[in-house]
Design a protein that fits this description.
The protein has 173 residues and is mainly α. It has one domain: Intergrase catalytic core (hpI Integrase, Chain A). It is built from eight helices and three strands. Strands 1-2-3 form a three-stranded antiparallel sheet, with no helix packed on it. A hairpin with a 4-residue loop joins strand 1 and strand 2. Helix 2 runs antiparallel to helix 4 and helix 2 crosses helix 6. The longest helix has 17 residues. One of its GO terms (molecular function) is DNA binding. One of its GO terms (biological process) is DNA recombination. Keywords: DNA integration, DNA recombination, Fimbrium biogenesis, Transcription, Transcription regulation. Belongs to the 'phage' integrase family. InterPro entries: DNA_brk_join_enz, Integrase-like_cat_sf, Integrase_catalytic, Tyrosine_recombinase_XerCD.
């Protein structure tokens, strides 16, 4: 997140990175967000999953909501003449393309000193692993990430040894 601060449109880029991680977005899902998907009064976000996934509503975290508000202030400065209500716009007042989003993530990763080339799907995986590591139930994680098939979710919990903690509450006889 800090690496995005020194890039152009830091509010937008930090917002993109945080939302991709917090909600486990695929690139297309994030870039398809509209202003109308944000419920400011309820501090919620309507999420339309792709790949036949479950669409749902997620709460907006306080820090995330504040970043969105900062981006929306910046967005107002460039939105003149924009058709549609895309949440994330490029400098050219168009919706951000997948290629542009990939370059934003790659550059943020480079500036952060990552040893690998960062890409947007890493943030989705990081979300899944972080939630699994925090003990989120596999079925809840499946719903949160919008997976129809639980097998796509199990990968996040399979490497978490903490899930076995307490299995043997009593000593075997």
């Amino acid at each position: 997140m800090d690496a995005a601060q020194s890039m152009s449109f830091p509010e937008r880029n930090r917002c993109l990175i945080m939302m991709a991680f917090i909600h486990g977005f695929r690139a297309s899902e994030l870039l398809d967000l509209r202003l109308s998907d944000i419920d400011a009064s309820g501090k919620q976000l309507n999420i339309r999953r792709i790949k036949n996934g479950f669409s749902t509503t997620h709460p907006l975290l306080p820090d995330e909501y504040n970043l969105i508000k900062l981006w929306l202030k910046q967005r107002k400065l460039i939105e003149n003449g924009v058709e549609g209500d895309w949440l994330f716009l490029s400098r050219k007042r168009r919706p951000i393309s997948r290629q542009h989003f990939f370059s934003i993530i790659r550059e943020a990763g480079r500036r952060a000193g990552l040893a690998v080339k960062a890409h947007p799907h890493m943030l989705r995986h990081a979300c899944g692993f972080a939630l699994a590591d925090n003990g989120v139930d596999t079925r809840l994680l499946q719903d949160y990430l919008g997976h129809r098939n639980i097998q796509h979710t199990v990968r996040y919990t399979a490497s978490n040894a903490a899930r076995f903690k307490g299995v043997w509450k009593k000593k075997p006889r």
